Amino acid sequence: MRKSLIILLLVLPVTILSQNLFTQLSYADSLFKNKNYFDAITEYKRLMFFDNSKSFSFITNFNIAKCYKAGGKYEEAIKYFSKAELSTDNSAQKYRAKIEIVKVNLLRKTTDRALQILNEIERTEEFNQLKDSINYWKGWVYIFKDEWKLAKSYFDKVEKGHTLSKISSNVLKEKYSVTFAKLISYIVPGSGQFYTGNILSGLMSMAYNMIFGYLTVKAFSEDRFFDGALIGSLLWLRFYRGNIQNAEKFAIEKNIAISNNALKFLQYEYKGDKP
Amino acid sequence: MTQFPTIYLTVNKLRLISKNPYFNLLKKPFYKILFFLLIMFSSVKPQISNINSPDNRLKFANYLFNEKDYLRALNEYKEYLKQNQNDTAYFKYAESFLRIGRFEEAAENFKSLFFNSSLEDEAKLEFFKAHFLIGLNSKNFSYFRNLFSKEVYSTTKYYKEIKRLTLISHFFDNSALPDTNEFFSTFDDSNYVSIKNFYLIKKSPKYKNPNKAGILSAILPGLGKIYSGKISDGITSFITTCLFTFFSIDNFKHNHHFRGWLFAGLSAITYAGNIYGSIASTHIYNARLKNDFNNKIKYYFEERNFLLPNIEFVNR
To answer: Is B17 exposed, middle or buried (0-12, 13-18, 19+ CB in 10 A)?
Structure first.
């Protein structure tokens, strides 16, 4: 009885002391869960300010960053993820923060920075066990860099036949070759547009080139060199160049559309870890 | 959140102990120390027990303010001011509005510090700054200048600074610049050279005359363009116009009437287009000159906080 009384009395003030901060944390967490990010950040900051022992430092910084990320404020998010990373000695937590920074970098399209961070992580001995996870995120970096072949190779390293690897190879199959489109347009004007599926524009290109080509040849064959040179240089060459550029433009446009569709699919349908 | 009042708890603990048969134990040294420790523990609590207490709220608000998170800071100040009177907190509350660009609200809140407050002069200074910035955004300083002439808002402490602000405002709109003597007397030596420069440019900007450019281009195609600073454009138009004219004359000479007329038409179009282009390009040149100048003065004054003094206690 005596012992239990003493223990109780000793523990009571300490528990009340930290209980406040715990209540604060759960309050902030509930705001975060309800997607009330602005107030959640305020409450997390309040917790951080009164947490003299810094025992909540990681969780508060990490969650503030998450709120900022959810609100699309990527600069702030990165700032607080970095603070979270610095506030902890736990290697798992460090890794979590680093990967979050990579993800935010992907979202704000600074893929080079994301890759740089991943390479740094790879070089750190501490994270040697996490090769799979690093490769997985490298794959994502290359998706955002629109280099699906490299993305596929990294997902294959994680696991043969990974869902994302399949998606990447599908995208690769669907994509048009820009060089091929240009090349066939050099040989037969309009064929590049046929290749990318823009039939009407291909027909127009073909017709223009045929008419002006015919007129140029006709002028030269009738010894009207001036007319021939004029039509040839100003009209025929113009449409010939235009046809090649047009084919290139269509191929690039279609490729962007394909990538965007794939990204949209990943955003809404893919269930795994994503930025 | 339910909070236990600390004193209540401590008293309760004492009562509990006194009723307890073990109370006598307190006479033994070990238990005396233990009891003392307990009291000490309890006394740590109040500082942190209620993190939403007014004092803590104010501390937190100041922390947010220093972290430049003004939007959150002003919410905290607002909560604090609901129950407490504190001019410094109120000033910072208004200042938060100013710093996130909500100038109207800032001005309104500074106004309430004009009477019975030790921060009256500072509040007036910031009030004028807020109205200046409203003017800067809407490019209309008439209301701001009007305020300066009103007796109620005048302050002896910052009279010179606010006067200077009204003079600076003349750089940002199309109003007539005040007399040089009046203008330069309020500026310090360190800014004198730049300000003088700005004054001269503002007073007589080096604009180019569109009509002159048009006439020049009519006399010699491309000359107007060269006048407006586009030398390569000028040379190109000169060559094209000459070439088309030559083709036209040459074709007429060889009795190719259709081609002659064709090139004559082309030549006429380039000639007329060149005149129009020269006039347009002087307009563009003038607009760019004006824009560059405006950006330059804006940058100059913004970097120096519009030559206003920093208020000490705000940044503490």
So the answer is: middle
